[in-house]
Amino acid sequence: MEFDLQWVLLALPVAFALGWIGARLEGRQWRREQRDAPRAYFKGLNLLLNEQQDKAIDAFIEAVQHDPDTTELHFALGNLFRRRGEFERAVRVHQHLLQRGDLPAAERDRAQYALAQDFAKAGLFDRAEQAYRELDGTPFETEARLALLSLCERSRDWRGAADVAARLEKSGTGSFASRIAHYWCELARDADARGQHDEAVAALQRARDASPLAPRPLILAAQRLARQGEHAQAMTVFAELSQRNPAAFDLVAAEAVASTRACGQVDATRRLLTELAAQRPTLELLRALDELEGRAPGTSPRWVEQLRRQPTLSAAAVVLQTPRESWSEEALAGVREAVAQAARPLQRYRCAACGFEAQQYFWQCPGCLGWDSFPLQRLEEQ
Asked: How far is CA 90 from CA 107, 119, 121, 208, in A?
C-alpha cells in the first residue's frame, strides 16, 4: 500500500487548527477561573470589612473551590471559623493544610500554630498543649511557649509552668522571675496541704532563689512558722519582709502582732510599726498598732491625724465605730471631710448615651450632642 503524502499535507493544518482552538479554549477557561477566584476573594474581604461574617465565609468557600491550592484562602477561612466559634470546621481546614505534601515548611509551621490555637479556643487543652510543643525550633516557638505557659497556669500545672517560664527567660523573651516565684509558692502550698513539709520548705527556697525581692515567699514562710508555733522565727521573717517590701507587710501586719504577742517581742514590734506608720501611714498599720497597745480601733490620736492627712471613708468608718463621747472636734471635722470628698463624684449627672458626667444638668449632652439623654436625678439618687 502506497503512502499518500497528500493526506499528510492535509492533516497537518487540521491538527494545527485543532491545537490552536484547544489552547484558546483552555486559556479562556483559565482566565475565567482566575477572574472568578479573585472576585470571590475580594467579595469575601469586602463582606468581612462590613462585619458580615456569614456571607464572608460563603464567599471564601467559593474562592477555595475555585483555587483549592491557595493557602492564604485556607488560613483566612480557618481564622473566620475560629472567630465565629466554629472550632471543628477551623480544625478541619488547618488539618487539611497540614496533610498537603506540597506545603512549604514555613506554611506548615503556620498551619500548626493555627491548629494549636483552634484546640485552645475549643477547650481541648491536652491537644493544644501537644500542638504547641510541636512548634519547638520553629519561628512560632516563642508564641507557642507563651500560649503553653497560659495553658499550664489554667490547668494549675505549676511545675510545668515554672519549666516553660524558665525556658522563655533563657531564650531572652523577658524576665519571668516574679511569675516563677509564684509558681513555686503555689507548689509549696500544695505540699503543705498534703502534709509534705520538707517539700514545702524546699519549694519556698526555690521561690526565693528565683526572685529574691518577691514578697510572697517571705509571707508564706512567716505564716508557716507561725502555724508551727515558732513565733520568734516568724517575727524574724516578718521583720525582713518589712524592710524589703513595706507595702506587702501591710497584708500581714495583724498576723505579725499575733506572733509578737506569742513570743513577747512587743516593744520591738511597736517600734517597727511606729517607724513604718511614720513613713507611710495605712489603715492596716494603724489597726495593728491599736491592737498591740490594747486600744479599741479608732480611739488613738493617730486616727485624727490620719483623717486630717487623708480623709477616706474607711478611716471615717473606723472612727465612727468608737463611742460618741470619745469623738473630738478634729475627729468630727475629719469625718465630715471624708464624707464630703466621697460624695463629690456622686453629685453629678451622667449621660445615659455616652457616659459624659457634669455637675450641672444639660438638656443636650456636650459629649454626644444627644437630647434628653441626662437622667433627671444625680448619680447618688439613681
From this structure: 16, 9, 10, 44
